Task: structure prediction
Amino acid sequence: MQYKYAKEHVDYSDFSSGRVFYSLPGHPAFPVRLASEIFQRCVALRKKIYKNSSPCVLYDPCCGEAYHLSVLAFLHGEYIREVMASDVDEKIVTVAKRNLGLLSLAGLDNRINEISKMLEQYGKDSHKDALRSASILKDKLLGLHKEQPHATKVFQANATNGKEISENIKDKSVDVVFTDVPYGQHSHWQDSEFNDSSNPLSSMLDALLGVLSSSSVVAIAFDKKQKVSHESYQRLEQFQIGKRRVVILKPI
Ligand SMILES: C[S@@+](CC[C@H](N)C(=O)[O-])C[C@H]1O[C@@H](n2cnc3c(N)ncnc32)[C@H](O)[C@@H]1O
Result:
């Protein structure tokens, strides 16, 4: 895969998971450069196909810690109006709320206080680095907030259940879905109804149909054991990077 947008090797250490952004042990973070590339491809496709370059409503129905969503809002906030996130796991939803909370000045200031207290208590270099990164993130946020702060919403829902999703998101309101679905190595699809012959990815695509706007694209990162094909979607792009496959679709 050739990077079309995130072409440069940039130092993303200010965005490292567990530094300013919250993380849970055992939950690997999505690579920042790849997230940036995929999101910029989605923005470009919306512009090309729908002639729509207005800031989007971004949604991840398998959000985990909402790490990649939060990073995208800092990196590409000018293309985003609202960030929505959901996950089936109640515990991880609380972490996602804290990460998306960092998109508000109050949330980020609160995090800066937490890190300052840790620095006072333990005096570690990692806390000094975190404070420096937090101040860089705060400058970015102040720049973005000159336009308008991002609206955020985080809720618990099964991504394969359209009813649970539409109870929390208005019909036809989501412009970009960008999700990194469970691959099996670190996280598994959770649902009592799943078995070897079920296809949770296809059920998720069914469940999303009601909330997708008329100028929407859906980007999914998955592994080669899973298949993404659905009669109500057209494939726009697909590529492989390491063990990950990425597909970008549009509803038909
Ligand atoms: C690979 S992780 C996502 C990590 C995320 N991209 C990040 O940057 O923090 C996949 C997530 O899917 C969630 N998941 C598993 N089954 C689900 C389901 N049926 N509905 C919604 N989320 C589910 C898991 O709880 C896990 O948090």
